[in-house]
Structures
1.
Amino acid sequence: MKIGIYGYGNLGKGVEYAVMQNPDMELFGVFTRRDPATVHILTEGGKVFPADDVTKYKEDIDVLIICGGSATDLPTMTPALAADFNVIDSFDTHADIPTHFARVDAAAKTSGHTALISCGWDPGMFSLNRLYANAILPQGKDYTFWGKGVSQGHSDAIRRIEGVADARQYTCPVEAAVEAVRRGEQPELSTREKHTRLCYVVAKPGADTARIEQEIKTMPKYFSDYDTTVHFISQEELDAEHKGIPHGGCVIRTGQTGGGQTHVIEYSLKLDSNPEFTASVLAAYARAVYRLNKRGDTGCKTVFDIAPAELSAQSPEELRAHML
Amino acid sequence: MKIGIYGYGNLGKGVEYAVMQNPDMELFGVFTRRDPATVHILTEGGKVFPADDVTKYKEDIDVLIICGGSATDLPTMTPALAADFNVIDSFDTHADIPTHFARVDAAAKTSGHTALISCGWDPGMFSLNRLYANAILPQGKDYTFWGKGVSQGHSDAIRRIEGVADARQYTCPVEAAVEAVRRGEQPELSTREKHTRLCYVVAKPGADTARIEQEIKTMPKYFSDYDTTVHFISQEELDAEHKGIPHGGCVIRTGQTGGGQTHVIEYSLKLDSNPEFTASVLAAYARAVYRLNKRGDTGCKTVFDIAPAELSAQSPEELRAHML
């Protein structure tokens, strides 16, 4: 199947890597809003096209993987591109999913294409595990912990403070809370009791670090509800120690069955690279989107609607024989 | 939807508990090979019928959950009952799944029913997680660890030794191996390096405990490939400390994505009651079987073929709004 990558940041590059790992997939090309001549991709002989030209290739691409941001790109990109392509995105603004779904569904149904939104690990694999665990244990309690991992949004928020040259923020789960949940105790946990925030900040020369630290710790929504630690370090140290984009976390549901027995279901991820892992999930679901469209199953889907076998390159017979 | 339970041991009782926890399900009745007058079930006013009469009620039952053993019951029961019912079983002899599938599929397709086999946690939820993780990380390595949990088969094997009055065997994962896998080291592990076996044995009065211990530790297939520890205890201690049926384990896949980044995906279960949890999985999948049959999707399925949303009592809209 021929894959198009629309947008070539960290996520798009991750999709390109993922396509290389899947022998049944082939990169048709990368579409970028930058000047294609300035964009060098990893695939030998791989093509780069201007984003505006994408519809010229609508007969050549089986699935277009849209690697844009949820804030401003995807709400317009995904419905627009679903008019001409089978598409998949990683839209992650949880509260706006129903609206995004309705718009993409309308576009895909009209054009006879298949779309899948909000794919990745949260939303995505974490959502799936919440659903499975809730269906199995109707009487129970859900917990999601994130980290230790880099939050791009929180890092950006720190960088906007006056006197800050660079910053990296890690979201960390409170281990004692995770352990209590794993023991099946079903604690009630406040925001502060679930996660802490760890910030590495490079101050500009002469900047007032005490004021910067205070501004970070009191920033509403981002930091004020958390126990936040701020370390001032040099740009060299930040570049050497904090340039990766690791992330992860866990979804835990604990519940009781009739005989008063407690069960703990946990799904956890430890990811060296958040975008490369997200991209790998997108590639697997691109296979499903391709198959569904071949069968005439059009409109917008989410990970909840896709049977697991659709993700695998193996046949149903192979899966039953070797993986069940 | 009306559920029939065919077989009323620990698993059947667990299904009965699970039906009580799901407001959209109702117990039609329990079918037993014992004298129905001697079988007392948990559901107030619940009915118990002779197993031989089950086809009399084929119009009254939406899904029949077959709670028999994999060795001798299910290979004949499930295909036979699929002639008259939508059925679900927990067939767990991994090597025989393709044969069992073919026979159940033929019966269900002929009769226009929907069947689902090999449901539970392994095969079942563990299989699903192997599939998802393999699809996401095509370059990687799988590990499954079981325990700490009671193995009924190994406990039975010890009880067959002369001089043994009672026994309980726990399968335990080797924690150092699990930790190495979680660090992404992808070790090659022998059988002995993955699990140990812990046995609590009640010897009959005057029995030669040294000989019993030797017979256990050298028993082929069951114990000789493992580091096995044997403790002789009293019947009172066994009854007080070891009458539960806990189990669990974890499925871990570690793999690399293109940029040389390592990712660890882990799904783990800690279960106070193996049969009650398995039963809860069966109940959730019974909902899916019911829905598929209503849509005319007949024949035999496995957990690989079922879209996650089919397991949930919530609507697709609710799931997208609250669980994605």
Note: Chain A touches chain B through 72 residues (CB under 8 Å).
2.
Amino acid sequence: MAASSSFSLSQALLSHSLPTHCSTQQHSDRLCLSGFNLSSISGTKPNKSTLRQISRAANPRRRVASRSTVKAAAVETLEKTDIAVVEKSINTIRFLAIDAVEKANSGHPGLPMGCAPMGHILYDEVMRYNPKNPYWFNRDRFVLSAGHGCMLQYALLHLAGYDSVLEEDLKSFRQWGSRTPGHPENFETPGIEVTTGPLGQGIANAVGLALAEKHLAARYNKPDNEIVDHYTYVILGDGCQMEGISNEACSLAAHWGLGKLIAFYDDNHISIDGDTEIAFTENVDKRFEGLGWHVIWVKNGNTGYDEIRAAIKEAKAVKDKPTLIKVTTTIGFGSPNKANSYSVHGSALGAKEVDATRKNLGWPYEPFHVPEDVKKHWSRHGSEGAALEAEWNAKFAEYEKKYKEEAAELKSLISGELPVGWETALPTYTPESPADATRNLSQQCLNALAKVLPGLLGGSADLASSNMTLLKMFGDFQKDTPEERNVRFGVREHGMGAICNGIALHCPGLIPYCATFFVFTDYMRAAIRISALCEAGVIYVMTHDSIGLGEDGPTHQPIEHLASFRAMPNILMLRPADGNETAGAYKVAILNRKRPSILALSRQKLSQLSGSSIEGVEKGGYIISDNSSGNKPDVILIGTGSELEIAAKAGDELRNGGKTVRVVSFVSWELFDEQTDAYKESVLPAAVTARVSIEAGSTFGWEKLVGSKGKAIGIDHFGASAPAGKIYKEFGITVEAVVEAAKAIC
Amino acid sequence: MAASSSFSLSQALLSHSLPTHCSTQQHSDRLCLSGFNLSSISGTKPNKSTLRQISRAANPRRRVASRSTVKAAAVETLEKTDIAVVEKSINTIRFLAIDAVEKANSGHPGLPMGCAPMGHILYDEVMRYNPKNPYWFNRDRFVLSAGHGCMLQYALLHLAGYDSVLEEDLKSFRQWGSRTPGHPENFETPGIEVTTGPLGQGIANAVGLALAEKHLAARYNKPDNEIVDHYTYVILGDGCQMEGISNEACSLAAHWGLGKLIAFYDDNHISIDGDTEIAFTENVDKRFEGLGWHVIWVKNGNTGYDEIRAAIKEAKAVKDKPTLIKVTTTIGFGSPNKANSYSVHGSALGAKEVDATRKNLGWPYEPFHVPEDVKKHWSRHGSEGAALEAEWNAKFAEYEKKYKEEAAELKSLISGELPVGWETALPTYTPESPADATRNLSQQCLNALAKVLPGLLGGSADLASSNMTLLKMFGDFQKDTPEERNVRFGVREHGMGAICNGIALHCPGLIPYCATFFVFTDYMRAAIRISALCEAGVIYVMTHDSIGLGEDGPTHQPIEHLASFRAMPNILMLRPADGNETAGAYKVAILNRKRPSILALSRQKLSQLSGSSIEGVEKGGYIISDNSSGNKPDVILIGTGSELEIAAKAGDELRNGGKTVRVVSFVSWELFDEQTDAYKESVLPAAVTARVSIEAGSTFGWEKLVGSKGKAIGIDHFGASAPAGKIYKEFGITVEAVVEAAKAIC
């Protein structure tokens, strides 16, 4: 696998450090992510003595030959840490947040001020990471689910020595082009794992990260070499707790026994509208115990550092359950007049209160100043992080020697490199192949791909047998069988989407898919949007994609959904029409690791069409049949998905009547938009204004393709409960309607 | 109020019995809903002796002079009920479900078979309703949150004597045009309170219904006359429990102390993918205790009728908490080979298994047969229901005599009739009025309307001070202050939307509004879609509607949201540009009681524009300025919301350069679509193809308005974190861009 690699670490880092979600940059060839320094593994043998030197520089008192020693050393360091430096460091975090928000005159100082102690302990004492390679594979993951408090994380990344958050970045907080946007964005700031801000997403992402770790550990760890081994930490607030998505994801986290997921609940009793008493009086501890979590309460999160440390220790000791550490804090701790009030949540303190807070906390420094002793204290993370990574690289080299095949596979997951020729596994079909529902054809693709793509895993929100998403050669990913690849999400669409975002962002080679009925994308739209924004190449397998589902009726029949996703940036909305197109849709989805894909698939059987192809799908829109010449048909019929067959039949009928007819499949608007003007003109010549489209969904947006002289056949009202054929007929989604519309304009 | 009423009960029933969500039928004048027989109240004095006769016919052994007597009688009846008839009735329910699903060869027999006992006890022994007036105001509400089991409810409505579900309706289950669609739909089937099927929605709707009852009871009940007094019952399944929305809504239900909400949790351990063990192993009881519910476990839901009865009695005795009755049942009870398996969940049993089930349960009857003794047993509900309503009408007459003002107000809430001249309360503005954010102007409207509309109540998902939704003259709706009208939803958008659907469907005069940032409609889209489908006129107050929110960045900046709602059927997407347009948007939203409205409002200040008007908004698109003649301007500039000001300024600049320019505000595409062709031509003449639109959102769909020769200025990628002005400039949402585009085409 390594032999076919053509990318270096520096390229990998470059690809990470640039925001790439703008449409012009979204190309499927940008797969060069790396979780570790490949050169140190695949090229020369790592030099153990060099490694030792690095680690000694980091901490001369300890050896780093084995992981467990490092862990012990970390605890040792922690115990010896001067309390004064800890307090100073915590106040540094607080004031970096205060100062940045003040300079921007925008932002959320309250959470960083309250959570600085747990933040400090995590990043300075507990977490294992390498600030100089934020993508080191085996790093502990940290997610700030309460993303509005991002200055906490920026301050921590700054102190820890990440190049992504320099002093100038703190000073340009929330400004145009900065690496410190208003909420944490993984695509802007190396060191940020996921994109948070919309509440509840982060804790669900963290569940996905922890799932990925447990899954990969189960698949690749050996009794003598636990090559995958990290924790996932998360801070969530009252807002995250109130959101339903967090309950969904946390129910699953306990069900799956994600013991290495440790969540800090910032219990500060304040949300934007005031005291949580006005809307949030449930017993969170009891709810989490009901969900199956281990729950610890740190009563003094403001200054009880040892309480926090002890809680983390206890959490790590509980291996079969995730742990919720409820940390009671004071929002805006240190601000004499605004602490413990909503006024410190989401706006700058104001010069006067900043002064008062400086006085109150005994902070004589200028804005953005990091005291020398704090700087010095944190400086060790550079060398320690390098040592941790080097140690792990050495461990990987050992692993590679002993477990060649597994190492190659794991490496491909870490790098995101796809096996050469993987796409040949995709099935192809001829017009003689039996008619089938695209949901079934999708299952054929999934099962074919799972054999060649070690990172493909996923499942459905309790509709596996309807969505046809089971991988037949694998069992269920469960607490005691985490090596398996069928994930059972239960009826939790929103949590499912966000968990898949976490899986996708764990390492580039993991390719999560998830499934439900297309209409229920409404339940998970916030997570899907974040897939698109944060460049998580999740594959959304959405079946029952129209009135074609029949009797379940309008609550289950999507109408506006295709249009609603075509309007969303950085996502591919694919609606294949038959077997070849379904295979093509999967090819596109697999290649697009930095944007999600939604596959809209039929419940009902569809014919295998003449002229359909994988290559066609890659162009978004293409001609499946044409009896005209000179790029000037009398009429162009455009269909998608289950209605392409209708367009094809109407084409035949019109041709029988003497017309020249082009039939175009429009499987993905986004892909077509990315083609050259010449190609577009070759498919939809400007001179041919007689165009009819047919799609069993909203006509909203179709004017772009059919023009003011064309006709869009679709459904601009809700569906109905009846057998599918009857609804198609009653709603006029028929061959006759296409023929009639075409005759009227050509 | 009654004097101004021009509608009768028969009209009211007619309006209910027709599906009205098709766009051609959605007119604001269709407000004629009635919750009680107005003629018996507002006209002649009710004749007590007649009432007594009706009630005696129903049950000669008891008097109905007071409500409590009826209740006691009901219990008495229940105690005397022959167990054999109960069992036969329960099996009737089971077989009506089996037979209907079998005939349709589609549907979900499992739940009705398992829940028939609790269904029977609720509809036959516990609930207070009048089958001949499904809209009687003081009826107990029942919600089948597990909507796929709708045959349970259809069977119950049929037995209870509702005209909406006759034998022929059961026989046309899931067929075109039937009143028994695949999931319960309030707009199709009188007797169905809300539209369910998408899981978790129903329990949240039920929370809204119970909130409405508690609120109205607090406002209108008197120590001597508790005129508002009913329970809300709901059946939810494992699927509902897994969905995050149910946790959100149930957390609020306990917070609000909704003691008259009684939820049956059908604990059958089976979901579509198999045993709930594969994805749902949390302790639901403990979670609900954590949420603050009273929890009861009925261990034998299959035959433990007295257990179920006792649980309901206990639930009613707990007045300060909602109650969850966990009823352990066997899905598909009675089917010898399919019970307790997923195979009975969602498909017909098949002829062989139907036979086996008939044998197993000793059911010798033909399909759809209701045995005579069962028929006779249920027949009393017609007269009893009439008596209940008549008794309540008498009570209302007493109430009206003593509390004239309150009675008039309550009557208007029950009928949905708006006070004459209410719209004059809306504020108006001149170009000289100070610039302001439309979110602030929205608050002025809300506060003005709350004074004249007794049914207006609502709130925000923890963003009241950002969404500007507080009604200043009212306090918070809370457990101990349920008469107040500011609802604090916490950070629970999805639950909020579905709760508002419940409030809206409780009685036509309640007008719920709810608020969050526009981008977070993604969290609640499933609830919004159901507002549209089920004709709930909820007002969605969605602020921070574009990149204009600035520093919070792309996670918070809507891009595709306007397009995504323009594509959704039966919803009004309104984006007002200034004070007059905001007032106009509220006028439209209040008048549209059968379709929801979304108001997209700015965070940033906007000028009051010359030419804007309430009347203009009502037409959806209208001219705000024009220096052309003969309906032939050189160019048409189209703007919405915050960008209308940009279009207006560009218009001025182009006019200074000698062009004739029309500036059009396009506040609602849906309303414009409903205008006459002549009006449309007067605003957007076909001959003028030089058109430029500007909107700080996706251009998807704008081709319809600007045509292939025009230009749509918008944003087709994600936003950015920076001050708003900077983002507008960098993204080219500027006067200069409009002027340049216009010059290029005219």
Note: Confidence is low (pLDDT under 50) at residues 1-78 of chain A.
3.
Amino acid sequence: MAGTDHGQDSGWDGPTPAFILVRPQMGENIGAAARAMLNFGCDRMRLVAPRDGWPNSAAVATASGAARVLDHVQVSDTVEEATGDLNYVFATTARDRDLTKPVMTPERAMQHARELTAAGQKVGIMFGPERAGLENSDIVRANALVSVPVNPAFASLNLAQCVLLTAYEWRRSGDDTAPEVMEMAKTRFAEAIELQKLLEGLEARLDAVGFFFPEHKRDSMVENLRNMVSRMNLTEADVRTLHGVFRALAEKRKGFK
Amino acid sequence: MAGTDHGQDSGWDGPTPAFILVRPQMGENIGAAARAMLNFGCDRMRLVAPRDGWPNSAAVATASGAARVLDHVQVSDTVEEATGDLNYVFATTARDRDLTKPVMTPERAMQHARELTAAGQKVGIMFGPERAGLENSDIVRANALVSVPVNPAFASLNLAQCVLLTAYEWRRSGDDTAPEVMEMAKTRFAEAIELQKLLEGLEARLDAVGFFFPEHKRDSMVENLRNMVSRMNLTEADVRTLHGVFRALAEKRKGFK
């Protein structure tokens, strides 16, 4: 995790998801998001490449009583870094995306987050920059999408409002007494960094055999693979198996050279 | 209804509740409330004694695309006037009140509002002024209270946020049609026979490179692969991609024989 000099919380002790603001622009919105989170007991914020750097005095001024959320913020340069230790990542999106990925309401998503968290998984929720929203290259790293069912004729939720509704649903999801015990409760699910390494390894092997052809389709082919793998909810054991499968298929080839 | 010279909607044609802002102070907050409402299809706003009079240019500027909510606002001098034609009135409140009155979550309140509206009743929701909130003399006019379950250690919802959560719950309460998981609507998921063929193809390729070693572990290794693949919830497109990946990794090898 980059920016470890900003007083981040290195561990993951509590049961709340990480709210990951990706390339946020205005410090005021970061502060307002911190307040929105804390209203519903969420205090784990991560920032990816905040436009105006970090720390940000406008964020602190706006956060006011929620400054302790900012005190423990984790700052990264990339989404890859910010999600590396997470087992399950949601991406909030306003528009329909032409991606094969489950789309959930905030309610369903936070119920699922609650189940995953109860099973020991680390969950994060990504929020895109003001106006533009998340890019497809961010979204393909997510396990599922979250879409707020806004009025199609007037959809103007700002960043802090989207954070507010998500945190509210997180809180609501915990109103039930007993959390559902998930199947596979003892399984360790892969962290995003492990998926990333799996993909990089596969990509290199596929490059070596000229899989990405024609060249101008390379990016979309890689994105497609990334999208598929991030949706599979792989366990750590799955990742090891797939490393083995790819290696076996590819490296024997070398043996025959 | 007072203030009928401000272009109000005199009738009650639609199915949405009235959002009644009582003694709001900042025009910006009125505009932000209008936006929050319209995000979830609510467009009936009433104002009681807005501090800076009406119309309010700051409200209009902030409302922006939601200006039509303000165009039809009804302005009154008192809560009594503003609620006179309503059958059922909710009062939003942050603090516990020492009043014998049902207290509902926003979810339950808006479900109830939906039921009442469906039965032809006219429903309103009162929101107090910034900071101070509603006075007891306002609240005693309400049929029920609505309280957002905020973090007791940090409760800082502003007016527009409270309006947002209420409008969101109103929208959710009518959301019978939309499934909670919009499970990749146009996607065709793979059939078992397709997974079976994928596995058989992979197994043959892995056999060819001596992956299943030692022999006595062969069955459990195959079972492990099958278990993994069946858990991935692959789409038909994923299956084709994986066929391509396995072929690329393995067949180039043959080319080098």
Note: Strands of chain B lie at 18-22, 45-48, 74-76, 88-92, 103-104, 123-127, 144-146, 181-182.
